[in-house]
Amino acid sequence: MKKIAALVLSLALAPLSHLAFAAQPLLSPQELQSKLTDPNVRVIDIREPQMYAAGHIPGAFSAPYGQWRGPATNPGELPHLPKLTTLVQSLGLTPTTHAVIVSTGADSTDFGASARVYWTLKVLGLKELSVLNGGTKAWTDAKLAQNDRVPTVAASSFQPKLDQSQIVTTEDVAKRIKAGDATLIDARPSAFYQGETKAPAAKAAGTLPGAVNVTYDKWFAAGSGVFVSADQAKQIAATNKIDPAKETISFCNTGHWAATNWFAMSEVLGQKNVKLYAASMVEWSQDNNLPMANAPSRGQQLLQDAKGWVNKVIN
């Protein structure tokens, strides 16, 4: 009888046990430090190789941000699955691995790199994911240990499949705009949203029709790369009139800044219907048949192109 009771209790507690071990989207340096001895935790350092070589969190593996991005014509594109499969296998990742992404923590723009890699891993079917809040800067400020030793890990045999529920294409966005049944959030600074400037790879300036501008930097402690608390994030969402009941699509130029808005709404606030338009305005602007809002006049466009050319030549 006691054995039956124990079995019933263990089954009843199983869902709670799963929740107890579910990874938090954000970890403080101290929280990450307490996990470093866990062999199931994999710290992924996405900084440039020379920064990693100069010193990193003990046991961290180097996987620079550029490896997670698309081609030069549009870095926002999701890399092909075989490339991503090779990358995650080389890091020894499996569905049970707790992957913690670490960037420089220099500022709010840098956080977008961590958020984008987090999203990519989620698209690949991984669930146990976290970002080190404040990145390496926060770790260093906390005076926690670093070293220059390069760890090794056996490659995994994990065969990821793309979770299409996490992906939105240009065709999908066009349908949502036509139906008017989604909230479109432009994460870029106001000058991009207003059509006053554009990304170098974009064909035209402007934004998606009906989009609202919620800049990526709203989610951070002033002047830092440290994400605010969940309670503060709720206040920010309410102030910007983000409706959690409506499907939301986050976009920017190449899915970098937009990854921060996606992370805030989907992972921190737990909104279930948020998607990242990874290719964003660089891809959207290539098709002259797609509608644009806040598009500059022909004269303004020529002036922007001229300024862009001058800056390219000077730099």
Number of strands: 9
Strand ordering within the main sheet: 1-5-4-2-3
Low-confidence stretches: 1-20, 309-315
Mean pLDDT: 90
What is the fold named in CATH at topology level of the largest domain? Answer: Oxidized Rhodanese, domain 1
End-to-end separation in angstroms reads 78 Å
Query: What top-tier CATH class of the largest domain fits best?
Result: Alpha Beta
Strand content: 5-15%
Described by the principal axes of the CA atoms, the overall outline is globular
User: What is the H-and-E element order?
Assistant: HEHEHEHEHEHHEHEHEHEHH
Annotation field: number of helices = 12
Q: Looking at this structure, what is the CATH superfamily of the largest domain?
A: Rhodanese-like domain
Helix percentage: 25-40%
- Class by helix and strand content? alpha/beta
Count of the domains: 2
Written description of the protein model:
By secondary structure, the protein is an alpha/beta fold. 40% of the residues are buried. A 5-stranded parallel beta sheet has the order 1-5-4-2-3. A 4-stranded parallel beta sheet has the order 7-6-8-9, with helices on one face. The protein is 39% helix and 10% strand.
List the helices and strands and how they pair.
Blueprint: H1 2-21, E1 26-27, H2 29-33, E2 41-45, H3 49-54, E3 61-62, H4 81-90, E4 98-102, H5 108-123, E5 129-132, H6 135-141, H7 170-179, E6 183-186, H8 190-193, E7 212-213, H9 230-239, E8 248-251, H10 257-268, E9 274-276, H11 280-284, H12 298-314
Parallel strand pairs: 1-5, 2-3, 2-4, 4-5, 6-7, 6-8, 8-9
